[in-house]
Write a structure and sequence with these properties.
Number of strands: 0
GO cellular component, one term: membrane
Structural class: mainly alpha
Protein name: Aquaporin
Membrane topology: Multi-pass membrane protein
Strand content: under 5%
InterPro entries: AQP11/12_channel, Aquaporin-like, Aquaporin_11/12, MIP
Helix content: over 70%
Number of domains: 2
Order of helices and strands: HHHHHHHHHHHH
GO molecular function, one term: channel activity
Shape: globular
Length: 268
């Protein structure tokens, strides 16, 4: 196990990243008040860049301090992001869900997904510079090291794991939004983190195509085609299935209860 001071360095890198992203968000909102589409694109790019930068550093935490430390930091970050990102999601399939729900059109969804991928891919240069500085032993030789895939199971099984877990995440997220419990962000973050940890040693537990692409596309251990099947087709199919399942009256009544489900239906 690495020196605990290296964990402090990793936490500092993630805190600095979150701070800079927070500043960037506020500047973007202030400069685009009359251009909502541009604001939405910038917020998606910033959120995805923040997510991916922190998750690059979380790889360092997992490799050197174990999955428990990784999970604890991820949980804290997820709570922060749920209260900080606003309308941004940093996740492509949420915009597919919006298309299915009639909340947006395909053009806007495609633009937001493009913004997410741009932010996620470009941010590696920022992390690469930090790793190149080798502020701690855990960063040594990481800046230009060949990455390895997290997929430890057959491709179709990996896609199924990503898909099922994504469906569960989306059902839980929609249910929490409808129930509006106290500490909703903490509950949702706990569920998401638990599913990530459960899938960690099988598919990596990404449940987010943009995140998986930024961190693992082109890595040794799987082809680009296999990556797309597992992390894009699997996760997006899971999101669509989760959306359709949650809309089914039988499922919604079992989760929310008949009275609450009826009230929500009437409100629509």
């Amino acid at each position: 196990m690495a020196d605990q001071s290296c964990l402090t360095v990793s936490l500092f890198v993630m805190a600095l990243t979150c701070f800079m992203a927070s500043v960037g968000r506020r500047v973007a909102v202030r400069r685009t008040r009359s251009r909502p589409l541009v604001r939405g694109l910038l917020l998606e790019a910033i959120a995805t860049a923040e997510l991916c930068a922190c998750c690059f550093e979380l790889i360092i935490v997992a490799d050197n301090f174990g999955v428990a430390a990784y999970a604890a930091v991820l949980f804290a970050l997820t709570v922060w992001w749920s209260n900080e990102w606003g309308e941004a999601t940093a996740c492509p399939y949420t915009h597919l869900e919006d298309v299915l729900d009639g909340k947006t059109d395909v053009r806007v969804a495609a633009l937001k997904i493009w913004a997410q991928l741009t932010g996620g891919v470009l941010i590696f240069r920022y992390i690469q510079v930090i790793w190149w500085l080798e502020l701690c032993d855990t960063h040594k030789n990481r800046a230009f090291e060949q990455c390895t895939a997290d997929l430890q199971v057959p491709v179709l099984l990996g896609a199924a794991i990503e898909g099922v877990a994504t469906a569960l995440c989306r059902i839980a997220s929609r249910a929490i939004a409808d129930i509006e419990p106290k500490f909703a962000s903490i509950i949702e973050s706990f569920i998401g983190t638990s599913l990530v940890v459960a899938a960690f040693h099988f598919s990596g537990g990404y449940f987010n195509p943009a995140l998986a692409t930024a961190l693992k596309l082109g890595c040794k251990g799987h082809t680009a085609y296999e990556h797309l099947i597992v992390y894009w087709a699997g996760a997006c199919a899971g999101a669509v299935v989760g959306t359709l399942l949650y809309k089914h009256p039988f499922i919604k009544e079992r989760i929310l209860g008949p009275e609450r489900a009826a009230r929500l239906k009437k409100a629509l």
